Amino acid sequence: MSILSGLGSFGLGDLMSAELFEDDEEKEEEKDELQNKQMQEEIQLHSEHEFIFLKSYSCPVCNQEFKNPTVRYNRARKERIDPDLRVRYSNVDPLKYGVIGCPNCGYAALANQFDQLSLPQIRLIRENISVNFSGLSVKEVLDYRDAYSRYELALANAIVKRAADSEKANLCLKLSWLLQSRIDNFDQELYFGEGGFEETEKKLKSLRTNALDGFRRAKKKENPPICGMDNSALNYLMSVLAFDAELYTEAEDYLAVALQGGISNKKMKKMALDLEKKLRLKRKGMA
Ligand SMILES: [Zn+2]
Fold first, then answer.
1. Is residue 234 part of a domain?
2. Total domains in the fold of the chain
């Protein structure tokens, strides 16, 4: 029994398993790791300048001109693709620059959706976003926290303008990628903020289950390509999301559809076969 087990009666139960003597070496290592991660991100941001420029846009909601950080794709080099289809580039992460946001009125959307607004949607955004909007700073290089806020704003806009389910699902998926990068970069706000790391993990899970739910709904109402994915790619992605949510039967069903339809992309095909293996092991209770 811990020597602090009596603390429960003081309402200090959380401290019951606290270590009495802190190991200085461990503490030092933790501090070093934190500083290293932060330094890595700073270096990354510094080198990102040459891949970014400020592009001018005209806002369809408030009609004002503004500038938005944009990636020079001709300079970015593709490195690999993650099992959940996140494309990784070396030197720059274009994901961070995927949202165009108007600093005047708060309208924000994914780049390929920015101009696609109906008149009723413009009215809804003016009435529900612009009236309360307090401003968005115009920066050239964005860190993951900046990017996360911009995607949150885009999701708020998507909800208000009653966007297609696929658009909301796609934003949730991308928010989960950005949150993962914030975790990987040891974002202090997540670790020392309200709820700490545990809350962040919960949020990450809920973003991914919301993405899955959105794609389920989209599949019933929309025709492929959905968010640039053909039917096989969409079913493969949904299988990955269902697997992560421990919904194995659902994951098997989507994967079967994906493989039956034929996956033309070689890397995706390989990842689908890997997932099939993982599902088989799960079924046998081996993983
Ligand atoms: Zn605007």
1. yes
2. 1
The answer as to whether 124 is a domain residue is: no
- What is the pTM assigned to this prediction? 0.85
| DSSP character string of 60-103 | TTT--EEEEEEE-TTT-EEEEE-TT-PEEEES--GGGG-EEE-T
106 C-alpha vs ligand 1 centroid, how far in Å? 6
**Residue whose token pair is 């790619």:** 233
Domain of residue 271, residue span? 229-287
What residues does the ion ligand 1 have nearby, CB within 5 Å?
59, 61-62, 102, 104-105, 107
- Assigned token pair, 174: 């991308």
Tell me the CA–centroid distance for residue 277 and ligand 1, in Å: 48
| Residue 158 belongs to a domain | no
Q: From the CA of 69, how far away is ligand 1's center (Å)?
A: 15
Amino acid at position 226, single letter: I
- Round to whole Å and give the CA distance between 199 and 203: 6
- At 4-18, the pLDDT tens digits run 555 555 556 555 555
Distance 228 CA to ligand 1 centre (A): 26
pLDDT in tens, 161-193: 999 999 999 999 999 999 999 999 888 888 888
